[in-house]
Specification:
The chain has about 160 residues and is an alpha+beta fold. It has one domain: 60s Ribosomal Protein L30, Chain: A (2-Layer Sandwich), CATH 3.30.1330. It has three helices and ten strands, in the order βββββααβαββββ. The strands form two sheets. The chain has a five-stranded mixed beta sheet with strand order 1-3-8-9-10, with no helix packed on it. The chain has a five-stranded mixed beta sheet with strand order 2-5-4-6-7. The longest helix is centred in the C-terminal third of the chain and has 15 residues.
Length: about 160
């Protein structure tokens, strides 16, 4: 088994059933896992911010930081390997409010809504999610089954 770590603002794709894609520190960040069980293709994206207009220069150097530029690239990369949109299972994890700020500054919620809007506009359904709250999460996609495992605060494990 090969463990592939997806860092902050990164995306990884796999077609190897022995792989596990894992990302840590999903606080306000959002993890998006996609998996096509028939084609055995999956991917994991770790989005940090909702919109690339916040920093176009940063989006040019790393489009995976932002929901609006990272999510389309995740899906295109999977399609290029043979995944089909109608068979993709999509799971969202993270989007917590980990920093208490005055006003309506809730990056986790903004990330979540940005991704949901993108998916909705493209007729992509979400199969499962573990979002919101105040806890940081770890997300793992097992390529052999497409199962997503979530660890909350390094203790609780939930399978999606």
């Amino acid at each position: 088994m090969s463990r592939i770590v997806v860092g902050l603002g990164e995306m990884k794709i796999s077609s190897n059933s022995a792989d596990e894609l894992i990302t840590y520190s999903l606080g306000s960040c959002l993890g998006i896992a996609i998996h096509d069980i028939l084609a055995n293709i999956g991917g994991l994206l770790h989005v940090m911010l909702p919109n690339s207009r916040l920093s176009p220069e940063r989006a040019d150097s790393n489009p995976y930081i932002f929901a609006d530029t990272g999510v389309p690239r995740l899906f295109r990369a999977a399609y290029e390997l043979g995944a089909q949109k109608r068979r993709l299972r999509v799971v969202l994890v993270g989007g917590a409010r980990v920093i208490r700020a005055k006003g309506n500054l809730n990056i986790g919620k903004q990330n979540y809504y940005a991704v949901r809007r993108l998916l909705w506009r493209n007729n992509v359904l979400v199969a499962a999610e573990e979002v919101g709250g105040t806890a940081s999460r770890t997300m793992k996609l097992s390529m052999d089954s497409g199962e997503v495992t979530v660890r909350i605060n390094s203790k609780f494990i939930k399978r999606l």
